[in-house]
Write a structure and sequence with these properties.
Radius of gyration: 20 Å
Oligomer: single chain
CATH topology: Growth Hormone, Chain: A
Number of helices: 17
CATH class: Mainly Alpha
Strand order of the largest sheet: 1-2
CATH architecture: Up-down Bundle
Length: 395
C-alpha cells in the first residue's frame, strides 16, 4: 500500500505546478496537458503485460523488480533540464510503477470473501486517493514556502526508496499469492471475456469517469489562479478538496456496494448523479462564484467515486481465475481515459478565447474553462445513457 501511495501522488502533482512548468519551460496549456497525460498512456498500455506477469509470477516478484527503476526515474524527473526530458522521465515513472494497483488487488483477493470485497477495494482506493490529495497539497505548500517543484520530487524519490527497502526486507519474505500457469484454453477464455458486452461497458464508462476526474483535478488549481487570482499555493490547497472527496467516497461506495443487492445499480446511479452535478457546475461557472464552484466540483467527485467499485463487479461476475489480467484489461482503458482528458482539456483551452500572456504564462478566461469542463459533462452524459440502456442490474 505504501508503494501504491506514490503511484497516486504522481497522478495529481502536476496540477498545482502547471504555471511553474509554463513559466520555466515556456509551454502552453496543451504542453502541460501532454506532460500530465504522458503518465497515463504508458500506465494504460502496460496494464495487460503487468496483469499477466502478476498472475504468472506473483505480486511481490513483479513489484520487487520494477520499483528501483521507478526511484531512478523519479529522481531524473526532478533534475530534468528540458521539457522533453521531463516528459521522458515521467514516462519512466509511469512504466515502473504501473504494476502496484493490480498487484495490491491480486494479493488481497484470496484473503477476503466476495461479499466483503467491495469494502476492501474502497479502502484500498481511498488510501491511494489520500496520496492524490497530498499530491495537490504538498507541492502547493512547498511553493508557498519558496521551494520549487524540483525539491518536491527529490523528496518523493527519497521517500520511495525508503518504502522500497522496507518492502524488500520485510514483505517479500512472506509467501506470495497463488500463481497460474498459462494455457491455450485459458487464453481462449480471456479472449471471449475481453469482448463481452458487459465488460465493454465497463471499459468505456471507467475510461470516461476516471478521465473526467483526472481532467478536472488537473486544471482546477489553474482555474482558481486564472479566474479568481488566488495565490498559487492557496489555489493548490483549495483544489485538493475535490480530491479529498474521492478519498472519502471510495470506501463509502465500496461499503454501499457490499450492502446492496446490486453493485451495478450503485455504479449506474453514481454516474447519473455526477452528470447532474456537472450540469449545475457549468451553470455556476458563468456566475463567477468561487465558493459555489468548488462545492459543486467536490460533490461531483464524491458521486463519481462510485465508479471505483468496478473491481467488485469484475470479481462477482468473472471470479478469481486470471483475476489480475482481467483487472489490468479494465485498468488499461481507465488510464487511456486519464491520458486523453488532461490533454484534450488543455487543447480546448488553447483553442478557446480569451487568454493573455503574463510573464510567459498563459492566463485563460472563464469561457475557456467552461468549454473545457463541458467536455467532461457531455462525455459523462453519454456514458450514463449507455449504462442505463445496456448494463444489467444483478451484479
Amino acid at each position: 500500500m505504501g508503494l501504491y501511495f506514490f503511484s497516486q501522488f504522481h497522478r495529481t502533482a502536476i496540477g498545482p505546478l502547471a504555471g511553474e512548468f509554463m513559466r520555466e519551460f515556456s509551454v502552453s496549456a496543451a504542453g502541460v496537458g501532454l506532460l500530465t497525460s504522458s503518465y497515463f498512456i504508458v500506465y494504460a498500455l502496460l496494464q495487460p503485460l503487468y496483469g499477466a506477469a502478476i498472475d504468472r509470477f506473483g505480486s511481490n516478484r513483479v513489484v520487487l523488480f520494477t520499483m528501483p527503476i521507478y526511484v531512478v526515474a523519479c529522481y531524473l524527473f526532478a533534475t530534468s533540464p528540458t521539457f522533453e526530458s521531463l516528459i521522458i522521465s515521467r514516462i519512466g515513472v509511469a512504466a515502473a510503477i504501473a504494476c502496484v494497483y493490480i498487484a495490491g488487488l491480486k494479493a488481497t483477493a484470496p484473503k477476503f470473501k466476495t461479499t466483503t470485497y467491495g469494502k476492501v477495494v474502497g479502502i484500498y482506493a481511498g488510501w491511494g486517493y489520500t496520496s492524490s490529495l497530498l499530491g495537490m497539497m504538498i507541492p502547493s505548500i512547498m511553493l508557498g514556502q519558496g521551494l520549487g517543484w524540483r525539491q518536491t520530487f527529490i523528496a518523493v524519490a527519497l521517500a520511495s526508496l525508503i518504502f522500497y527497502l522496507f518492502f524488500a526486507l520485510f514483505t517479500v519474505r512472506h509467501s506470495d499469492e497463488n500463481v497460474t500457469e498459462p494455457s491455450s484454453k485459458q487464453n481462449k477464455v480471456i479472449l471471449r471475456t475481453l469482448f463481452s458486452s458487459d465488460l465493454l461497458l465497463i471499459y468505456l464508462s471507467t475510461a470516461i469517469a476516471y478521465g473526467s476526474y483526472v481532467g478536472l483535478v488537473s486544471w482546477i488549481p489553474k482555474y482558481l489562479y486564472d479566474v479568481f487570482t488566488l495565490p498559487r499555493d492557496v489555489s493548490g490547497i483549495v483544489a485538493a478538496v475535490p480530491v479529498a472527496m474521492m478519498a472519502i467516497g471510495s470506501p463509502l461506495m465500496g461499503l454501499l456496494a457490499d450492502k446492496t443487492k446490486s453493485s451495478n445499480s450503485v455504479y449506474k446511479y453514481s454516474h447519473l448523479l455526477t452528470t447532474v452535478i456537472l450540469a449545475a457546475l457549468l451553470y455556476t461557472l458563468t456566475l463567477g462564484n468561487a465558493l459555489l464552484s468548488m462545492l459543486l466540483f467536490s460533490c461531483s467527485v464524491l458521486s463519481l467515486s462510485g465508479f471505483m467499485i468496478w473491481p467488485t463487479i469484475i470479481r462477482k461476475e468473472k471470479g478469481e481465475k486470471n483475476f489480475a489480467l482481467l483487472l489490468s484489461l479494465v485498468n488499461t482503458f481507465v488510464f487511456l481515459g486519464a491520458f486523453a482528458y488532461p490533454a484534450a482539456i488543455g487543447l480546448i483551452m488553447d483553442l478557446a478565447t480569451p487568454k493573455t500572456i503574463i510573464s510567459g504564462e498563459r492566463i485563460y478566461g472563464v469561457e475557456s474553462y467552461f468549454w473545457a469542463f463541458a467536455f467532461c459533462f457531455f462525455t459523462m452524459a453519454f456514458s450514463t445513457i449507455l449504462l442505463f440502456m445496456r448494463m444489467r442490474t444483478k451484479a
